[in-house]
Amino acid sequence: MFAEKTYIFVYLILFFNFTLGIYVLWKNPKNKSSQVFFTISILAVIWITSNFFEDEIQNENLKELFLRIDYASGILGLSMFLFFCLSLVNSKCLERPLFFSFLFIIPSAIAYLSIFTNEIIIGYQNLGSAILPIRGRLGLLYDLVAIGYPLAGLTTISLRYRKMEEQDKFKIVYVYIGMILFITIVLLTNVVLIEIIKSSPHFKEYSRIGLYSISLFLLFSGYAIARHQLFSIKILMIELLALGVLLLSFFQIIRSDSLFEFILNFAAFLFILSFVLILVKNVYREVERKEDLQFLSDRLSLANAELRQLDRAKSEFISIASHQLRTPLTSIKGYSSLLIEGTYGELGDLQKEVVEKIFISNERLIHLVEDLLNISRIEAGKLEFNFEYCDIVNIVEEVIATFEIVAKKKGLRLVYERPKKIIPKIKIDGVKIKEIISNMIDNAIKYTPKGEVVVRIKKAYVIHERHGVMCQNEVVRVIVADTGIGIDHSELDLIFEKFSRGAQISRFNTEGIGLGMYVAKKVINVHKGRIWAESAGRGQGSRFVLELLVR
Ligand code: ADP
């Protein structure tokens, strides 16, 4: 019975190693590691087969032949591990033919000597159930290579581990685990527990467990190179746990005493195996999804950083360009106003009109440059405020005064309705608020072909909710109403966006670029105030309201 089971067990192991080798090669045939892995798995199959038959077969000559093949395939398989490690770390050694041949010739020569000469083994001593090899003169050399090559492999991957790409490191970890499991089981069965095993009636079978455990090494390494990039501690833990359970149920098969028990245990093993496969697959899927998400979010944040960098560069450019524009514009302003005032001699009516046009256009350009500068300051977070108590009525009146000529020239009535109640002083950045009011009136004139522009200042109370409590606040409103082109309902909020202009606005005015209201909104937000537009629609005039808190 035991012998029968041993056969099945060995067949299973052989089948497993062989299919694993084929699978790994099939997954990635051009990859060096896969090729070396395939060679190792085939050598392992030969090694296990010959080791098995050297004990089982009765024919004396065949016994010795299998022993020699056992030795040869063993040394080739073990030394292949070094090549496997070199390929894992993409070592340049594999591309140097001389070095490669040197590494390859030694184990090949030993394999040759094992089969065809008496240098490594002379023969064997029959112990009944097993055989004991009688070693030749170069037996020690065999041991040195058998230990030295795998050790060199492990050293190589250990030294290169740090320099490896993060996604490749997991391969090394898996190979290590596989190799350590293999070595530990060999040491346990052939060294540490040898005395106990020797006294067992199944000494022969137990002593082979070490050799069979090469399948564990193959399992881990094959898995590492067939599976790309996915490495997580969570997966590793689950896999190790699953493997432990599988091994237990596998040993259960070997320990069964009757055929019935054997079949039962085997069925249990298959059941556990399928369960483990489903479990691991699901964990994989979950980790894979997480990694995909991570990858996407990494890419997004990278793109985001690049965009921010681009935006910063753009703002810097605007800032530098605006500063350069400011100086000549200021001197145009200065000289044209001196010309208008007659400092350089009285001008004729026509000349005066032309210079006034120069002055007005220049004023617009100055506003525009100021807006551009403000934008770059806002985006760099460098817009500075100088809050102090100001008389808003004064500010509005000053601004209106500067627009009187412009409005008159356009044939518009610029009406200022003096406030009926006393308007309290409010804490604001006077310069910036003046700029905004100036922008509002400028727009009203720009976008009103005929009729009037009315400016009002009002005190009002607003109720709002703060931390769940209703509060009442006193506010001051500056309202600029016109009888101009009006604003479509859908555009009322849009006009406060960056570079945003009304749909057909360029028909009426080609100078604006859609920054004034955007800057205004940003500045008013810092003041904790509000600015908004009202209009009954196209051609119905508009009302711009600026609301500031009294504090
Ligand atoms: P622009 O430089 O285009 O005037 P603004 O930010 O000052 O930029 O205004 C944004 C847009 O709001 C304008 O392009 C225009 O479409 C609309 N707008 C502003 N004021 C008025 C107004 N008084 N009447 C009609 N549309 C206006």
Can you describe this structure in just a few lines?
The protein is built from 15 helices and nine strands. The chain is α+β, with helices and mostly antiparallel strands and 551 residues long.
Name its key features.
binds adenosine-5'-diphosphate; two-stranded antiparallel sheet; alpha+beta; 551 residues; Rhopdopsin 7-helix transmembrane proteins; 3 domains
Characterize the quaternary organization of these chains. Answer: single chain
Helix/sheet category: alpha+beta
Mean pLDDT: 87
According to CATH, the fold-level topology of the largest domain is Rhopdopsin 7-helix transmembrane proteins
Q: Major sheet, described briefly?
A: 5 strands, mixed
Which ligands does the model contain, each kind named once? adenosine-5'-diphosphate
Structure description:
- The strands form 3 sheets. The protein has a 5-stranded mixed sheet. A two-stranded antiparallel ribbon has the order 1-2.
- The chain has 551 residues and is an alpha+beta fold.
- A hairpin with a 2-residue loop joins strand 6 and strand 7.
- The termini are far apart.
- The chain folds into 3 domains: 2-229, Rhodopsin 7-helix transmembrane proteins (Rhopdopsin 7-helix transmembrane proteins, Up-down Bundle), CATH 1.20.1070.10; 312-380, Helix Hairpins (Orthogonal Bundle); 388-549, Histidine kinase-like ATPase, C-terminal domain (Heat Shock Protein 90, 2-Layer Sandwich).
- The chain contains 15 helices and 9 strands.
- The site of adenosine-5'-diphosphate (ADP) has 20 residues, from helix 14 and helix 15.
- Residues 439, 443-444, 447, 482, 484-485, 487, 495, 501-502, 505, 512-518, 542 line the site of adenosine-5'-diphosphate.
